[in-house]
Amino acid sequence: MVLLIKSGGAEAIPEWQSLLAELAPDLVVRGWDDPTVAPDRVRYALVWEPNAGRLAQFQNLELIVSSAAGVDHILADATVPRHVPIVRMVTGETGERMADFVTMAAYALSRDLPRIVAAQREQRWDASLTGRMASETTVGIMGLGELGRASATRLAASGFQVIGWARSPKSLDRVQCYVGRGEFDAFLSRSQILVNLLPDTDETRGIVDASLLARLPHGAAIVNAGRGSQLDPAALLAALDTGQVGSAMLDVFDVEPLPANHPLWRHPNVIVTPHVASAVSRRAKARQAAAAIAAHRAGMPVPHLYERERGY
Ligand code: NDP
C-alpha cells in the first residue's frame, strides 16, 4: 500500500519516510516523482499543489490528505476524482500557530508598527506614533472554524475586544458572534482590525473588496491569513491611499511568491509575510496523516474531512 507524497519537494522525502516509519510502519512511503511506483499501488496521497491530472491516474486512490488546512490547491485540478475523500491538515499545532500570528498582527497593527518601522528606516523620531491599547481595540474575525476560534480565544485572553463572523451561530466565551450576510454589516462596522480566516469557496472568493473595505471604521487595519483569492489588492491599495484602511499585514497572495514588482512589497503601511502564519512542522503533519489513514482503514470517521456540499 503506497502513500505518495508531494509536500516539501524531493529533498523532504527521507524525512517523511523516517517519520512515517514510526507512525505507520506498514505504509510504503514514496515521493511524487518516483518512477518505480506502479499507479495501481497508490492508495493514499499527501499533497500540496498536485500537478493537474496526476491524482486522477491512481485508480485505487482511497484518501487524499491535504498538506494544508485549505484544500483549494487540490480542487484547482478539476480532474481530481470526486468520490475520493479529502482530509484537511488540522493538527494540534495549526490553531496555536495561527493564534500566535494573529495576536502578533493585532499588537503590531494596534501599536502602529508599520509606521514606526518606516520612520526608523528614515531615522525619523516620531513620538506621535503611540497607537491604541488592546483593550480599546476591537478585532473582528471572519471565519470561526479551527483557526478563527483559536485566534479569537487568544486575542480575548490578550486583552482585545473580540467579535467574530461565521455562517452558523457560535457561542464563544468573551467573543460576540455575528452570523451570515444579514449581520455582516454590523460586524464590519465594529472591526477596527479585520482578520480574514475564511476558507476559499465560491462565496468567499473576492470578499475583501472595495465595498467591504468601505464598511469598516475609518483607518481600520486588515490581516489576511485566509487565502489571497479573497482579497482584492487594488482595492486595498486604493483604501490605503485614502486612509480608509490604515495598515495591513498580509500572509497570503493570489500569486505566491508575491511577484517582485508588486506594489504591496514596498507599501510603507503594509507588512508582507511569506505564507507562514501557521506553517506546521512535518512531524505534526505526519502524525495527522497517519491518524487519518488509520481511521479510514479501520472504517472509523475521519476527522476534518472536506465537505463538498458546503465547499470547505
Ligand atoms: P474551518 O473549515 O474549520 O472554518 C471555516 C470557518 O469559515 C467556519 O467558521 C465557517 O462557518 C466560516 N465560513 C465559511 N464560509 C463562510 C461564509 N460564506 N460566510 C461566513 N462564514 C463562512 O477552516 P480553518 O479554520 O481550519 O481554516 C480556515 C482557512 O485558513 C483555510 O481554509 C485556509 O485557507 C486558511 N489557512 C491559512 C494558513 C496560513 O498559514 N496562512 C494556514 C492554515 C489555513 P461555520 O462555522 O458556520 O461553518
TrEMBL record:
Residues 105-277 form the D-isomer specific 2-hydroxyacid dehydrogenase NAD-binding domain. Pfam families: 2-Hacid_dh_C (PF02826). Keywords: NAD, Oxidoreductase. InterPro entries: D-isomer_DH_NAD-bd, NAD(P)-bd_dom_sf. Coiled coil: none annotated. CDD domains: GDH_like_2 (cd12164). This is Glyoxylate/hydroxypyruvate reductase A. It comes from Robbsia betulipollinis.
